[in-house]
Amino acid sequence: MNTSIPNQNPIIEIKDLKKSYGNNHVLDGFNMVLNEGENLVIMGKSGSGKSVMIKCLIGLEEHDSGTVVIMGNDISKLDHSALDDLRTEVGFLFQGSALYDSMTVRENLEFPLRRHKKKFGKIKDTTPLVMEALENVGLAHTINLMPEELSGGMKRRIALARTLILQPKIILYDEPTTGLDPITAKEILLLMMSIQKKYNTSAIIITHDVDCARVISNRMILLVDGINYIEGTFEELSVSTDPKVQAFFK
Amino acid sequence: MNSIFKIIELFKAFLLEIGELSYFAGRFFKEAFRHPTEFKEFLRQCFYMGNRSLLLVAVTGFIIGLVFTLQSRPTLQEFGAVSWMPSMVSISLIREIGPIITALICAGRIGSGIGAELGSMRVTEQIDAMEVSGTNPFKYLVVTRILATTFMLPILVFFGDAIAIFGSYLVENIKGNVSFLLYYNQVFDALEFSDLIPATIKTFFFGFAIGLVGCFKGYYCEKGTAGVGLAANSAVVFTSMLLFIIDFIAVFVTDIFYDM
Ligand SMILES: Nc1ncnc2c1ncn2[C@@H]1O[C@H](COP(=O)(O)OP(=O)(O)OP(=O)(O)O)[C@@H](O)[C@H]1O
Ligand SMILES: [Mg+2]
C-alpha cells in the first residue's frame, strides 16, 4: 500500500552478522540495509533469530562477527557513552512492552529523559514532553496509573510513547502487533504510520503478521536459516513461487 | 567413587560462582565512582530497605534479648553471678548475636527481595529497556542497592542491639528489680571501644554481602518465571553462607589484633 519511494540514504547497514549460542548458529551471515524514511519489515519463523538480530543491532547482545553501522557509526567501536548517545536516536519497542512495573506511566516516560541532557539541554519541566508523547498514542488520561492497571494493548502503546519521547530517528519494533486482537493491532499499526509521517522516522518492523507487513512495509526481508533469504516489496514476495517464501503468505 | 566426583563438581561450581561474584564486585567498585551518582535512587532504596525490615529486626531483637536473658539467668544464679548479667548480655549481643542475627534476617528480607525484583526486571526485559534508553542499568539498579544495604545494615544492627538490650532489661526488671538507667549504665560500662569497632566494621561487610549477592543473582537471572524464584532463593542461601564466612574471618582478624 505504502508506495512512496524512500530516498536511498542508508541509515543502518548490517554486514555478514554472525551470532551463535553454543552450537546453535542463530545468525549465520545476515545482511541488511535500512534506508532513510523506509519501513523495512523482517519476517521469519518463531525462533529464527529475529529478536537476536535486532538486539545485536542495538548492542544488547554482542555479535560474534560482522559489522553493524548505525548512522555512520560502527557500534562495536563505540565506547559506553558514545553508544548511549547513539541510542537516543534509536527507539526500541520490546516484544513484551518492558514497562518499568515499579513506576507510574509518567515516571516510565520520564525515565529515558534523565540521561539525555546533551540532546535536550536541561529539562526543567518534563510535563509537556510527557503529555505530547502520551497524546500521540491517545492515552493522556493514564498518566498517573501503574503498568499493572493497563491492558496489554495499552501497555504496548505506552511503551511506544516511551520510545517516542526521545524523538528517535530510527524505531525498531519487535513484533508490535503480536498477541493483540485484530482491532487493537490495527490501532497500533495506524499509530506507527502516523508517527512515521509526523516525525519522519525510519523503522525496522519484525513481525509474522502478514496484514501488518502488507500495510506498513516499503520493503521486506525474510530471515531464514540465519541469513537474509530473500528481499523485495510485499507484492514481489507474495507472488514468489519459492515454497519457503510462500509458507508465510498462505 | 561417584559421590566423590559429585562433591568435586559441586565444589567447582562453588568456586566458579565465587569467581563470578568477585568480578561482579569489581564492576561495582569501578562503576560506583563514576559519574553520574544516582543519589536520589540510593536514598529511596535506603528508605525502602529500612522501612521494610525495621519491624522485623525490632521484634527479633526484642525476643532474642528476652530469651537470652531468661535462659542464662538460672545458670548465673547458680554461681551467684547475676550481677554479671548486663555485661554478659551486652558483650555477647553486641559482639556477635546482634550483628549476625540481624544480617541473617536482612538476607531473608532484603536480599531475597532484591534477587526477585532484579530477576523479574531481567526476565521482562526491563533491564534491557533501561540500557537501550541510554541509562546504565548497572549503576542505576545494582550500585544504588549495594550501597544502600552497606549503609543500612549497620544502622539496623545498631537498632536491633538497642531493642535486644531493652528486652533483656525487661526480664531483669521483672525478676531482679533493676532500674532502666542502672541497667543501661551497667551495659555500657561493660563495653569497650574494642568491642564496638570490630562489631561495627563487620556489619558493613555483612551489608555489602547481602546487596552484592542479591543483585548478582537477580541481574544474571535465567529467563522464565522459575528463574526469578531461583534467583530469590539462591540469593538467601548463598548470602547466609557468605555471612558466616565473613563472620568467621572477622572474629579471626579481631583475635589477632587482640593478641598484639
Ligand atoms: N540468551 C540466549 N541464550 C541462548 N540461546 C538464545 C538466547 N537468546 C536467543 N536464543 C536462541 O536463539 C534463537 C532465536 O531466538 P529469537 O528470540 O531471536 O527468536 P525470534 O525469531 O525472535 O522468535 P519469536 O518470533 O518467537 O520472537 C532461539 O533458538 C533461541 O533459543
Ligand atoms: Mg522475538
From TrEMBL, chain A:
- Fetch the InterPro entries from UniProt: AAA+_ATPase, ABC_transporter-like_ATP-bd, ABC_transporter-like_CS, P-loop_NTPase
Q: Name one Pfam family in it.
A: ABC_tran
Any single GO molecular-function term of the entry would be: ATP hydrolysis activity
The question of whether Transmembrane helix is a record keyword is answered with no
Domain named ABC transporter is located at 12-250
- The identity of this protein, by name, is ATP-binding cassette domain-containing protein
Q: Does the keyword Nucleotide-binding apply?
A: yes
Which PROSITE patterns does this entry report, sorted A to Z? ABC_TRANSPORTER_1, ABC_TRANSPORTER_2
UniProt keywords (A-Z) are: ATP-binding, Nucleotide-binding, Transport
What SMART domains does the entry give?
A: AAA
From TrEMBL, chain B:
Gene Ontology terms for molecular function = phospholipid transporter activity
Transmembrane ranges? 54-72, 84-107, 146-171, 196-216, 228-253
Q: Do you know which InterPro entries this protein is assigned to?
A: ABC_MlaE_roteobac, Permease_MalE
The UniProt entry lists membrane topology as: Multi-pass membrane protein
Q: Which GO terms describe its cellular component?
A: ATP-binding cassette (ABC) transporter complex
UniProt keyword annotation of 4Fe-4S present: no
Which keywords does this Swiss-Prot/TrEMBL entry list? Answer: Membrane, Transmembrane, Transmembrane helix, Transport
Keyword Phosphoprotein appears in the UniProt entry: no
Q: Where in the cell is it found?
A: Membrane
Lineage top rank: taxon: Bacteria
Query: Record's family?
Result: Belongs to the MlaE permease family.
What is this protein identified as?
A: ABC transporter permease
